[in-house]
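Could you please consider the sequence and fold appended to this message?
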Amino acid sequence: MRPWILYCILLASSVCQLVGLVMFAKGFFPYKSISTTFATMDDLPVLPSTGASQGASGSEDNESIRPRYGKVVLMLVDALRSDFLYGNESDFSFVQSLIDTNQALPFTALASAPTVTLPRLKALTTGTVPSFLDAILNIAESDQSSTLANQDNWVAQLTRSKSLWKNRGKEKRNIGFFGDDTWIKLFPGLFFRSEGTSSFFAMDTIEVDNNVTRHVQPELAKDDWDALIFHYLGLDHVGHSGGPKSGLMRPKQAEMDSIVKNIYSTLRDQQQDDDLPTLFILCGDHGMNEVGNHGGSSRSEISTAFLFMSPHFQQPSMSARIKAIMDPYRVESVQDQEEYQYYKSVSQVDLVPTISLLLGLPIPKNSVGKLIPELFDEYSDLEKLRALQINAFQVAEVLKGKWSEFETEAVVLLSSYTPIDNQDQDSDDHAFETCAGMDSEKQRLSCWYTEALAAHASFLEMNRAGSRIHYKDHDKTASFRAAERSYSKFLSDSSSMLSTALSKYDMPLLTNGSLVMAFATPFSSLTTGDTNEIDWTMARGLSAVIFILYLVTLFASSFVEEEHQFWYFFNMSWWAVLGITSARYLIPATSFRDSGFDFKPYLAAGYCFAQMAILRLLRSWNQTGQKYADQIDLRHYLNSSWLGVSWLLFGATMATIALSLISLVYNFQQSTKQQYQENAQDGSSSSPSSPGWQPVTSMLHALLVILVVLVTLWIILYKMDLESSYFGDQLMSQVHSLMIRISAVGYSQISTLPSEERPPLTVSGFELARGCYLGLGLILVLTLTLKGLASSLTPVSDGDTGALTDKNAVSKVVQSKPQALFVPGMILGVATLLLVLLSRRHNAPIYVLFGIQLWLYIEWISLIRQRPSNSDHHQFSQLSNTAAEKAKSNVYVVEPLAQDDSDTIEASVAARTAPAILDLAFRTLPGQSSIHSCTALLWMLSSFFLLGNSNSIASIDISNAYVGIQAYDIFLTGVLTFVSNWAGPIWWTLATVVMMSWDLEWELAWTAQAAELELAQQEEQAWETVQGWRRSKDDKRSGMSRRTRRRVVREKKCKVGKEQKPAAAVATDGEEARKVDTVAGVKSKADGAVIENFESLQEKYDLSTADAVEDENIADRKQVEDDIEYLEEVSSAEPPSAILARLGAQGYRLHLAQVRVVEHLILTSLFFGITLYALSIAAIVLRHHLFIWTVFSPKVLYQFAWTALFQIVIQTVLVGGGVWALILFI
């Protein structure tokens, strides 16, 4: 089947996979079963009562507790990790002074995965645990599907309620917002004044906060607001750009602390005694890991801060209460506390019921949070239990949505309530143990809820005015404690269960999507074909073991979290196997008699073991995964104590990349000039070596070198400008002065004022990055232009190939290297510069190590392909020269033979030539291409983790999503985010092109040599066979054996099937024959020789096809038909030499490259297709697993990206259909 047909089939299977992927994604990512109505005060439960008190409740029994605060200011600092606020190295000095003087209530708030902004804001405002799909929508800034306009939340409840501020009367409450525009998307039309800032321009750490701070004082000074929300992004951006240890982190903390002080002081000054106080909340939405990213479920990512402040807390009574609350949580020694754990831990969703009750609002219907009791400490016991009852009733209504028979009304529950009593122990403890011992979760929760209502009713009865029974304070306290304990237990257990049980899956879509993906996988495998084998049994066995074990690990959460360890281990094992295999492959070819000791086997093994050493170094560069992600690695040192070394390595990296590209250009230029000179000697009139073309090509080469140097300098300047604080203003000024003399790119305005009056030069990162993009594009255009000129204006020499020796073949391959690797090498170099621009500074040297690995592999390929002949070198050379001479002369001397047995003669010739042909076939077999594909896959998958990525959402780096972009664009930012995070696999995808291009040159060279030797063998066999045909001149038929007559029939049939062509035209050595391909010319000469001999035989012996078969019996005739059918089958599967002869060198190159590319794409597509299908099965089976949200859901997202974006878009379409097309057709 033709390669382009296979490629189309592969594209069709990819489309089928995408359809199944979309179906599965729609069914897998869980959606929440939520109520779309809003809570009102009429929904509040009545107070519980038992016995005679039932029915005696007044109208006040369904009222809420009194609001404690009239206004609220919420300051949300993005990525405010708990230690940033409470740690010993924190620069929140004012905040810590408030905590130390008992004027603020601190908590560690725990978030749930995914720890990104959008789902965290939903949790903070609705009290629900959002869908994992929100992690995707968090990136789509323009998305409007995630709005909370139809979902109950405390922000909407505020706007629906009456203002509690005395001079506002009965007006609706007003909310102002300033900061991350995600809020504006979530709450459209709810803010009466607002201004949003983009949350994804991660390199901006200053203006993004200044745009919020400039509104703080003006808004606080106004009296028309009831709530103000300020969302600061700068601290999160500092983390993304430099990590939590960045030099900008502590100054940013100090900046936030000063804003807190400013707000607090203003609120304190505005506070009046006859007004309800204002509540000031400082909190974060999530934390960050040691790299500065977030999204996963590590302790550093889920630990953030809640701090409640108010001028009201300055009162001595409140300070005393706060001191009593906080003292048990204060840690005497830092060593005694857990990491990121400070004071009491609460859940983020607990903010919703807490703030709702404190502001006199109904709790949003879908909330699963539990109120924070410490903030209700100044309330009376009756109000505390009422707040707990309201909270418990609202959560019980959510449970009723899950279990329709779950009863929530106190009247119904208490009407049939029977107290749990035990004479041997306290009744409360016995009731607690009884509820805990229930079989089902539903029964346990119902028991807790009923016991809480009963204890609450009992406490109300004891405190009811006019009661004729006098209860002791001890009994009242015991009743209160029992109710509080049962309410708290019910709320905590319910919240924990509902946080993970609100997910529903569309099983039909899940199963159908998996079936479609399963169908697409064998559909892709239909394009694969069986290939011949070299001696790679051990390597192929290892690849099968790797694949099977990898599919098994998809069902284990620990292996998914630590997937990088799997690929590191088996990458090492792969190189060890390749080293041993290649050494064993080369050792039998060593000839101690002719050449003495041969170091090639050891050199080949050394190349593989060097790969292992480099991989070990790379493993220590970036720690990833979950278990060891916080351990110190080279990245830590390169960003802290080794910062100077890091910049030196970065500079050396850029210089190495630039010099590599310049060397490619220089070698290509020299190789082209050499071809020009050879063509000029042949008299080619179109040779660019003429005066009209030489200056043009020289100018283009010089321009290409200049562009490489300029782009390299621009990238260095861009990275330096991002960290200008390290270099200082003086050095950066000198750098700018030097760069502006070289190039004005990036400098938007050049002042013409005198030097003493000229302002300091500054560079625009946006314009500089775009200049880099443009420069890289021009480099590609010039590369393709030069290659096109060299291909079209420099005809390929068709001269004689010379003696058929390994030395000549190797020499030709080495000479073709600058031409063969120019375009793929330049494309890889341009991609390397782009990926360095989109990567963190400390990761830049990794690309140099990647380049060394690629060079080692190319050298290893050269050794494998240069394997010397297994046959005797002298005999091989003698045979080659004899065959070549006969092919040139086309003269066959017919001499009588002492032995007329032609079968013996053929066997003798085959015995002499078979070893040489077999050895050449060893070097031209396509089986080695699968080894290249397996190696490339291991590189791609390992490099993804080597650059610091993992299967956690937290490892997604958005710090480079805005390189060269001024405003948010979902497509451009999405592309840059993907490229920067998949930089390693993309680099190795293009490196595979270089590797396969080089291997293609060897395969072409050995195929051409094998074709010439095969033709020489055929000529020698034909010449020897002619001698055996001379039997007796008197008996034309009896003098020939049956085998000989069948050979005559076969050769005659082959002759008749050929295109009719004069023998003289085929065998001539004239001008026309020299224009055809060298190998094709040799083939024509051989055909002419064979035809001439058969025609002379037919004339001499008067043979014909009919005569030869006429007198044979039926068995003989059947044998002839079988022989002819066999020949037809063999001819239908053409050997490489036949295809080479038919298509010519250039045509065969194109054909072979297409076959190899399609084979590679088929193998990688099968890997990712089967992996995706296996993971879909794992996700269905484990959909109720404890870690389905934190481990398997992110893995599913990553696998979608691997399959859809990387394999289909990058490898199959862009590289397979784009890059290879440029290489082959230009």
Observations:
- The chain is about 60% helix and 5% strand.
- The first strand starts at residue 31 and ends at 32.
- The longest helix spans residues 983-1029.
- The mean pLDDT is 76.
